[in-house]
Amino acid sequence: MRTMQVEDVLGVSQNFASLSTRDLLEARDLYHWHLIHKENVVGTAIGRYRIRKTDPWPDRETVKVEQTAQKAPDPPEPKPERTFESSEIRNYSWPCVLVLVNNWQQPADFTSGGPLTPDQLVPKTLYLPDGRVVPVCIVKVTQSAPDPRRIPDWQWPDGVIGGGFPIISETQGTRHVASVGCLVTDGFSTFALTSRHVVGPKGHRVSTIRKGRQVTIGRSDRRQLTRLPFSEVYVDYPGRRTFLTIDAGLVEVRDASEWTSQTYGLPPVGTLADLSERNISVRLINAEVRAFGAASGELSGRIAALFYRHRSVGGYDDVADFLIAPDEGAESSQPGDSGTVWHLVQKDDKPLRPLALQWGGQGVEGSGGNVFNFALASSLTNVLRLLDVELVVDQNTAAQPYWGKTGHYSVAAAACEQTSILSSKLEKLLLANQDRISFPFANLDPKAVAKSVKAAKDNRGFVPLADVADVIWKTVPWETKGGRDTSKRQGNKGPEHPTHHADCDISKVPGGPTLRALSLQNPDKHLTVPFWQQFYTDCGYTTSNERGMLPFRCWQFFDSMVEALENDNLLEFVAAAGTLAHYVGDACQPLHGSQFSAGIEVPRVPGQPKQKKIGDGIHSAYESSMVDHRSIEILAGMQQALPTFPHVPLMESGHAVATAVVRLMDRAATAIDPLTLVNFYAATQGGASKAVTTQLWDEFGTATIATLCDGAVTLAAIWESAWRVGGGSQRFKPAQLVGMDLDALRLRYEDKKFVESFDLDTIQPFLKGHP
Prior knowledge:
The chain is of the alpha+beta class. It has 24 helices and 21 strands. It has 3 domains: about 120 residues, no CATH class; about 230 residues, Thrombin, subunit H (Beta Barrel), CATH 2.40.10.10; about 350 residues, P1 Nuclease.
C-alpha cells in the first residue's frame, strides 16, 4: 500500500516573495535592540536572500517550499560560511533582512558547553506581532579599511569639465579629494554636486585638475547635507533611532560654459531614476550600475543591499541608502571617489539613469586577502529634493568621438563596447582598457584631445594606443622615443607610412579590373604579397611609400595578438589590439584606399609649372575638419546605429583578416566614392572652413557615420577572432582581465620590434600562413 504525504492544511505558511520594503524595515526596526546587541553582528540591511554559489539550483517545487515559513529539516552537516564573494542572487532569491557578522558560527557553538551562549544566536526568522514572518540571511564579512590608492595620473582634458573629474580642497595643510558627481541648478546658478566633507564650509575655494594643473573652479555653497532622521526623509517607513547618512554639498561653479552635464568616461545619460517609498523595493537588488570616479576611473557593480546600517553609536543607527558591490574582477571604488554618481543600467541599450551619490566606502576582505571596496551611496532623488535643486542634463553635452585623431579614437572606443559580438571575458578586458586603447566616449572636444595627446608625446607620457601609429611611429626616433621613420625629408617617409593605406582602386588599363576587385574575386590567388608587388610595379608604383599594404599590416597584427595569447601575455595582446585600431580606422575611410586620397593629378604641360591637384586639401578637410566640426552628430549617429549594425563574420587566420579589411575598404568606397568626394570638394571654395565642411556633411554625413560603424564592428570582429584562435577565454581568469599598466604599454609601443614596421617588399617573411 502506497503512503501519501498529506499537507497540513491547518499549518501557517508565508510567501516570502510577497514581502514589501516596509515589511522588511518594520521587522528590522522591531528587532533593532535584539540584533545590535549580538556580539557577532556588525551591520544589517535589507535585500534578497543570498544563495551559496556551490548550492544546486532547485526545481520549482523546492523553490516553492523554500519561500515559505514552513519549518525545514535540520541540515545533515554544518554548512560552509556565506560571504558576498561565495554567494549570489538568483532569480528565486526572496526578500529578507541581511545580518552581517564578523564570525561564522555553527548551531553547535550555541549549545550547552559551546563557546557562545544561546542569547547570542542570530535568529533565522523574525516574527511580527500580526503574524508576518521575515527571513534572515546571515553573511560573514571581514571588515577592512578601504584599499587606498592615489589619484591616478589621468590625462584630464583641458576642455569642458564634468562628472568624474576630481574635486580638490585644502585646509589646515591637508588635501581632500573627491569626484564631481553631476551638474545641478537652482534655476539661477549652476552647481557641481559632490561630497560635503570635501567642499568645506560656505565660500571655501575648490579646484580640479585640467591638463595636469590644479585650477580653481568655484566655491562651496551654503546648502549642504550631512545626516537626517530617517523618518524625515522616508516618512512612510519605520526607522526609530535611525539617521540617514547623505553627505552632499554644492560647489557654485565660476564659469558654467566650462562645464558639461555628461560624465567623463560614460555615454550620454537619460533622466533621473526617481525613487520614493512607492518604488524602492528589493527589485533593485542585484541591479547593474555604472560610474566614473576620479580615483578609480570606470566602475561597474551591482546593488548588494538597501538601507545598510553601517554604524551604531549610543543606540542610534546610521544608515546608507545603497550598498554597492563591485563586479567580479572589476575595479573597486577607492578613496577619492566620494561624490561620484552611480547610474542604473537599463535593458535594451537604453540610456543610463542617474541613481545614487556615493559618499563613502566599506572595505571587505575576500579570499586570498584581497580587499573589495563596497560603495556607500545616497539616493540622488533625496539629495536633489533636500537641496532644492534640479539635475542638469543638457549642458554642453558635446561628447566628442575622435577620428583623424577624432575618427581613430571613436572607432576604437566604439569597438570596445560592441558587447553583442564579444565573449564576456574579452569584453571585460577591452572595457577595462578602453581608456588605454582610446578615450572613453566622454566630454572632450577634438582640440582637447589633440592637446592632450601632444602633451603626452612631448613629455613622453602615455599616448592612447589607437593613435600611436600616427603620433609616435610616423616620427623620427631622435625626436620622439619610439619613432620609426628613417628620414625627415620628403614628408618623413619611412617603413611605417605605407602601412596606413593602399591605392587598391588602381587598374593596369583604363576601365580594367582594380587591385581591390581582383583581391576579392580570388583572395587566395590575388590577395598575396607577390601579386600586389607585381600589380603595383605594372601600374608604375615603384617606391616604397606608393606601394600601400594596409591589409597585410592588419594580417601582421592578427598574428601578433594570437602569439601574445599563446604566450599568456595579456599586456602584449592589449598593446597590439589597441594599436591595430588605428589601421582598421584607416581602412574604413574611403580616401585611404584610393589613388585620389589627396586629389586628382593634373597632367603637367611641358614648360608650365606643375599645377595643384583637383580637390587639393580634401583629405584634411574631410577626415579631420568635417569630422571635428560634426563630432556631436557623428557620435549620436554611431550610438543610434551600432546596436543594429550588421556584424562581421569571425576569421580564422591572418589572411582571412586581410580579406575582411579589403572588404571593409570596398564597402567604404561604395558608400562614399572617392572620385565623387574629391570632385564635390573641388566645386566648393576649398579650405576647411565650417561653410565648406557643412557642405561636405550635408552630402556625405550619413554615409560617414555608416563607415565609422563599419570600422568599429570590423575591428571588434578581428579582436574576437584573435581571442578565439589564441584561446584567450581558456587561458585567463576574470581577475586577470584588468587595465594594463600605462608605463608598460608605453614601453612596448616605443620598442621598434613590437609589431615591427615593414613595407610591402619586406613584410612577407613575417606573415604566418602566407598562401
